Amino acid sequence: YRQLRTKETWLGEFNQTEIKAMLGSYTKVLFVRDPFHRLIATFLQGMGISPSFSTFVQEVLDSGMHNGSMAWKPLVSLCQPCLIQYDYVVMFGFLRQELGHLLRWVGLPAGSLPPELTDSQVQWTYRWLSEQMFSELSAQQKKQLSHFYRWDLAAFPFSSSFLSD
Questions:
Q1: Closest Cα partner for 64 from 53, 72, 55?
Q2: Which residues neighbour 68 within 8 Å (Cβ) at sequence distance 6 or greater?
Q3: Taking the model in full, what pTM does it have?
């Protein structure tokens, strides 16, 4: 289906027959990340120009599901995991382990991973950042964020997410 694909073509622009054929011809990998970690990363990368994390979160909540940036929209609205049968789901925080399995699964040597992937350091850093950032939020914002990301939290095993409660 390369002849149908252009630089800016979205999957939804094809008819159902073409979509089914294309999805059947590709290995589909979905990379998922705790939605709260995605918010933190977006804020720290300066994509939210808010003076505080709490203000940024309020802007995200006010923007809603349909007007929000792809950087913080719920994954289920972006990746359609209920409609697309992904061959492999890679969880951020377990990249080294997950990518090793994925590389073996597609027939590549697992030893070709870059050495700088250190999951334990990433997990510790995000745990610390999450605690700091979560403490800045009001109880109402925490509740609203949990509701905003409820489908992501239901679809993926983010058991240690601050939004899981």
A1: 72
A2: 60
A3: 0.74
CA distance 96 to 81: 23
- Contact of 69 with 87, CB cutoff 8 Å: no
What letter represents residue 102's amino acid?
L
First to last CA, the chain: 43
What tens digit of pLDDT does each residue of 136-162 get? 999 999 999 999 999 999 888 887 788
Cα 92 from Cα 65, distance rounded (Å): 23
- What is the per-residue pLDDT across 92-145, written as a single tens digit (0 to 9) for each? 766 667 777 787 887 877 666 655 555 555 666 677 888 888 999 999 999 999
Q: What sections of 26-149 are H helices per DSSP?
A: 35-44, 53-67, 75-79, 95-105, 119-135, 139-148
Rounded Cα–Cα distance for residues 102 and 132 (Å): 33
Give 45-59 pLDDT, tens digit per residue: 886 678 899 999 999
